[in-house]
Every structure is written in C-alpha cells, then in structure tokens.
Write a structure and sequence with these properties.
By secondary structure, the protein is of the alpha+beta class. The chain is built from 3 helices and 4 strands. A 4-stranded mixed sheet has the order 1-2-4-3, with helices on both faces. Helix 2 crosses helix 3. The longest helix has 18 residues.
C-alpha cells in the first residue's frame, strides 16, 4: 500500500500529470511522468492554537514522488482490473524513491496487462519509467 502522501486522488492531479508530463509506452503499460510536480498546498490564513505556523523558508523538504493508476474497463472485469491495480501499486511502491522529488507518476494499464505475468509487468514498468526519465532527443535535423 502506498502512503497517503504518495497517492494521487484528485482528477486534476491526474490531468496535470497527463497533460504536462512525458509519456512512454512499453508493452502492457503507459507511463506519464511529470517531474515538475504540483505546487505544495498552501495553508489557510486562519490557524488554530494546536497548529504551529510553518514558514516556507529553510528546512522545507521537497514533497515525495506521487503515483496514480488508471485501469479502464478495456482491461477486463472488476476482478481483473483490481488485480492489475494491486500488482502495479506493489511494483510502483518500490520504484517511487528512485524518482525525482516532487514528481507525479500516472501508470495506465493497457488491455494486455490482465493476462501479463507479474515479472512482465515489472519489466514493462521499468522500461517505461526509464524512457520517461531519459533526456529528450532532438528530432530536428541540422541544415
């Protein structure tokens, strides 16, 4: 299970990662990685006595990498989708510390993920994350 701080829950977080991130597809998964991340939520101006006021200055650590999963009905029925989601969540949990801080990862399962072995999902996920992290190659030709 991923910690609450490492999970994506809002559709706006998913949309930001998909629109602004790099996409890489390998075998059974598509990965969207937004290494810019999302800005940290700001606290409300009213605080209670039990909540200490935190300054945004020194001592501020970057937010941990966060992950979300998209497993559509094209993958299969509810049992197959939940099985794929559980497998991907377990695979991503070990890979999150290797991602840049404050990054957002969205893993989308393709229909073949339901029949894929656990090891195959792992190798596809590793290859997709590596491709998303790799620097972009210039596709422009020099004239």
């Amino acid at each position: 299970m991923l910690a609450a701080a490492q999970r994506l829950r809002r559709s706006s977080d998913f949309a930001a990662a998909i629109r602004g991130g790099r996409r890489a597809s390998r075998g059974t998964v598509v990965v969207h990685l937004d290494s810019a991340g999302t800005p940290a939520p700001t606290s409300s101006p009213t605080t209670t006595a039990s909540e200490p006021v935190r300054s945004a200055g020194a001592g501020h650590e970057p937010a941990p990498a966060r992950a979300g999963f998209v497993v559509s009905k094209a993958v299969g029925g509810a049992v197959a989708r939940n099985k794929v989601r559980r497998r991907l969540r377990h695979l991503v949990r070990d890979r999150l510390p290797g991602l840049p801080p404050d990054s957002t990862l969205v893993v989308r399962a393709l229909p073949g993920a339901a029949d894929a072995a656990y090891a195959r999902l792992g190798t596809d996920l590793d290859a997709a994350i590596a491709a998303a992290l790799a620097p972009r190659k210039s596709s422009r030709r020099s004239r």
